[in-house]
Amino acid sequence: MPPLSLSLLDRSRPLVVRHVSKTFTPGFRSPWSKKPPRRVRAVHDVSFEIAPRSIFGLIGANGSGKSTLIRILSSLVLADDGDVRIFGFDIERDSMQVRQLINRVSADPSFFRQLTALENLLFFGRAYGLRGSVVRERSAAILDRLGLDPSQQRAMVKELSRGQQQKIAVARAFLTSPVLMLLDEPTTGLDPRSKRDVQRFVREVQRNHDATILLTTHDMAEAEALCDRIAFLVGGQIVAEGTPDELRRAVGAGDMEEVFMALTGRSVEEDEVEVAVNG
Questions:
Q1: Does some domain include residue 32?
Q2: 131 and 186 part of one domain
Q3: What domain count does the chain have?
Q4: pLDDT single digits (tens) 178-229
Q5: Which of 137, 156, 177 is the last residue of a domain?
Q6: What pLDDT is recorded for position 237?
Q7: Residue whose C-alpha is closest to residue 77's, from 18, 142, 24
């Protein structure tokens, strides 16, 4: 399929999610079992829309449905119900076009561990049709901005720390200048300095490169520092959405942790289990 012409996109609605639901039947079940299958409701009737050139945050505990929703938006998992459109393209019917418009960072990225950071990025960039000289120039520039020095850029990935590897994942995702970025817990497990490096780079790209970003996190401070709008995801459902100021005013709270407690009656750490339902 030829590359999409970005000038022809309807940039007024980068991501529209309407009534999306997804339920799984996890694990092995014996065919002789008389018990009804256990079903896990990962996402239930989720709707939201992201404004162009903004950062939209989904806050939720581990198991709240954030990663399932990201996989649906990446067209890696099909929703049971609902509708997702990216720049007007239907996520299921137009999946090939959609994949040219988005990129994703996960909390557990994979690499060619015997290759260097730069070699990994060169392979990825060439796979996306970029010239080698362009990839090398962009890769070095992005890794510099993320705080990886030249010796780290030329080290094998297996020799780098968890934080340094996550920076490579962020660089890889932004290498192709996607117009919609899905960041799934991009700073989980990072030390404070690496976390600040990644957060600063995300904000810089959003501000200077016309990118729209969906960020999932359970870090309240990160969401408040980066996001223009925030939605709280609990048990696969959105329980509140608004700007940080709107959410604070709605419950008379001082920070996002207090807002979450006021809305749900518990902290994000206490909300670590997905909602199980019987089919």
A1: yes
A2: no
A3: 2
A4: 789 999 888 877 888 888 888 888 888 887 777 899 999 888 889 998 999 9
A5: 177
A6: 94
A7: 24
Residues 161 and 184 in one domain: no
In a domain, 196, yes or no: no
pLDDT at site 9: 66
**Together in a domain, 151 and 225:** no
pLDDT for 38 equals: 67
217 in Cβ contact with 182 (< 8 Å): no
Q: Burial of 100 by CB count in 10 Å (0-12 exposed, 13-18 middle, 19+ buried)? A: middle
The per-residue pLDDT for range 114-125, each reduced to its tens digit, is 899 999 999 988
With CA atoms as reference, report the closest residue to 41 among 233, 214, 260, 241: 233
143 and 164 part of one domain: yes
Pairing of strands 55-59, 229-234: parallel
Q: What is the per-residue pLDDT for 246?
A: 93
- Residue 104 β-bridge partners: 182
DSSP state for residue 266 in the 8-state scheme = S
Q: Is the pLDDT of residue 33 over 90?
A: no
Range of the structural domain that residue 40 is part of:
6-101+179-190+206-278
Long-range contact list for 237-245, CB < 8 A, 24+ apart? 237/44, 237/45, 237/46, 237/65, 238/46, 238/47, 238/48, 239/263, 239/264, 241/48
Give the neighbor-by-neighbor strand order of the sheet with 15-24: 89-90, 81-86, 15-24, 38-50, 276-278
Compute the radius of gyration of the chain from its Cα atoms.
19
Our CA angle for 21, 187, 114, nearest 5°, is 105
User: Is there a domain that residue 201 lies in?
Assistant: no
Co-location of 80 and 211 in the same domain: yes
- In a shared domain, residues 185 and 81: yes
The predicted-structure confidence for 65-104, as pLDDT tens digits, reads as follows 888 999 999 888 999 999 999 999 999 998 888 888 888 8
Contact 229, 217 (CB under 8 A): no
